[in-house]
Design a protein that fits this description.
Largest sheet: 6 strands, mixed
Shape: elongated
CATH superfamily of the largest domain: Immunoglobulins
CATH architecture of the largest domain: Sandwich
CATH class of the largest domain: Mainly Beta
Distance between the termini: 120 Å
Helix content: under 10%
Number of strands: 30
Structural class: mainly beta
Number of helices: 1
Number of domains: 4
Length: 366
C-alpha cells in the first residue's frame, strides 16, 4: 500500500516544481527525480547534494513527504540525515538563488522504508527454580525473548522419555512462572523448560533436566494447654505443637460455641484480655499445617474463670461510724457501728459452685 503522506507530498511538489525554471547559474548534483532508495525502519538515511551558485547566494529547503523539514542558506553542499517509519516516502530538496527566485533547481528521491526483519534465533533460558507444595509446584525462570512461547515437560521418569506431561503455554514477559498442578504428594518429579521462537518454532531451547519432590503434609499435634492463674480481665494460655511452623489460633467464648477467635501465628502462648470479671470462659486451641491448612487439629475444650474482685472498704469521713464495702463496681453494704465500739470482719463464703462469684459475709458486734 502506498503511503498517503507520499502521495500528498508528491502532489504538493508537482505544484511547486511546475513553476521552477532551471537556470545554469544554480545546479544540484544530482538533479531531478532519482531512483528509489530503501532501508529498514529505525535506520538513519543520509541525503545530500552539491550546489553551483556564482556568486554564493542561495536558499536550500528540504521536504519530507511534502512537509518542510530543514532550511539552509549560502551552501555549496547540503544534506539531511533522517529516520522514518516503515512506508513509502519522498525526500525533495529545492535550491533557489536568493536574488532571483526563478533561478531554482530540485532533486527528489522516492524512499521505501521496510520493517526490520525479525531475528530468528532460539531463545535462551536461565536456570529454573522450583517451589513445590504437596500437590503443585511453581517453576520460575527467565527467557531473553519476551514474545517467545514456553512450556514445561515433566514426569516421574528421570530421562523424561516416557510417562510425561506438558504444562500450559506461557508467552508474556521475560520473567515467567508456570504452575504444575494435580501432582502426587511426597513424590519426586523431573522437569525441563522448552522455549520456542515465536516466528519459527523449529528454533527452540530446552533447559537441562532438574527435579523436585512434593511435600508430605501431616496433621500437627497440640499438647494439652495450660492456663496461668486468671486475673479479673485476662489469662495467659500456653501449649506446644510438634510442628514449629504450624499456624495456631484460639477460639473462645462464654459457652462451647466458641464465637470469638484470635490468630496466634507460630507462637505457642497467648494472653486473652478484655474479659469480664468473675466469668467462666470456654476455649480450644487450633493448629494448621503450614503447607496445607486442611491438615489441622484442635485441643479439647477447656474452661477457666476470671477472678471476682475482693471487697474495698471505705469510711464516710463525715460519719466515722459508717463503713461502706464495695465489691467490684457495686456498693453492696453500708454498716453503722454503734457508740459502744466493736469490730467488723469479712470472710469469703465457702461457695461450692466454682463457677459462681464468691460471696462476702459480714460479722461484727456493736
Amino acid at each position: 500500500m502506498v503511503n498517503s503522506k507520499y502521495v500528498l507530498g508528491f502532489l504538493i511538489l508537482v505544484l511547486i516544481l511546475g513553476f521552477i525554471t532551471n537556470v545554469a547559474a544554480i545546479q544540484n548534483t544530482p538533479t531531478g527525480v532519482q531512483s528509489q532508495v530503501s532501508n529498514n525502519s529505525g535506520e538513519p538515511r543520509n541525503f545530500s547534494i552539491t550546489i553551483t551558485d556564482t556568486p554564493l547566494n542561495n536558499t536550500v529547503k528540504w521536504y519530507v513527504d511534502g512537509v518542510l523539514n530543514l532550511t539552509q542558506t549560502n551552501k555549496t553542499s547540503s544534506n539531511i540525515n533522517i529516520t522514518e517509519n516503515a512506508g513509502l516516502h519522498n525526500i525533495t530538496v529545492i535550491s533557489t538563488n536568493s536574488s532571483n527566485a526563478s533561478d531554482t533547481d530540485f532533486t527528489m528521491w522516492p524512499w521505501n522504508v521496510t520493517d526490520a526483519a525479525t531475528s530468528e534465533t532460539a531463545p535462551t533460558i536461565t536456570t529454573p527454580t522450583a517451589n513445590p507444595l504437596d500437590t503443585s509446584a511453581n517453576i520460575s525462570f527467565t527467557v531473553n525473548q519476551s514474545n517467545s512461547v514456553s512450556k514445561v515437560k515433566y514426569g516421574t521418569n528421570p530421562s523424561l522419555t516416557s510417562g510425561t506431561d506438558w504444562s500450559e503455554w506461557k508467552n508474556s514477559s521475560l520473567s515467567r512462572k508456570i504452575i504444575l498442578s494435580d501432582l502426587t504428594k511426597n513424590t519426586t518429579y523431573f522437569y525441563s523448560i522448552y522455549a520456542y521462537n515465536e516466528s519459527n518454532q523449529s528454533l527452540y531451547t530446552n533447559s537441562s533436566i532438574d527435579n523436585f519432590t512434593t511435600l508430605n503434609p501431616t496433621t500437627p499435634n497440640i499438647s494439652t494447654p495450660t492456663e496461668d492463674e486468671p486475673t479479673t480481665t485476662s489469662v495467659n494460655i500456653s501449649f506446644n505443637v510438634n510442628q514449629s511452623d504450624a499456624k495456631t489460633n484460639i477460639k473462645y467464648g462464654l459457652n462451647d460455641s466458641l464465637l470469638q477467635s484470635t490468630d496466634i501465628g507460630t507462637s505457642k502462648k497467648i494472653q486473652l484480655s478484655g474479659l469480664k470479671e468473675g466469668t467462666s470462659y470456654y476455649y480450644s486451641v487450633y493448629a494448621y499445617n503450614s503447607t496445607n491448612q486442611t491438615f489441622k487439629s484442635n485441643s479439647t475444650t477447656r474452661i477457666f474463670t476470671t477472678k471476682f474482685p475482693g471487697p474495698t472498704i471505705s469510711q464516710d469521713p463525715s460519719k466515722s461510724s459508717t463503713t461502706t464495702i464495695t465489691v467490684g463496681e457495686s456498693k453492696v453494704l453500708t454498716v453503722t457501728i454503734g457508740t459502744q465500739g466493736g469490730n467488723l470482719t469479712w470472710h469469703e463464703n465457702n461457695a461450692t459452685d466454682p463457677l459462681r462469684p464468691k460471696d462476702y459475709v459480714a460479722s461484727g458486734a456493736q
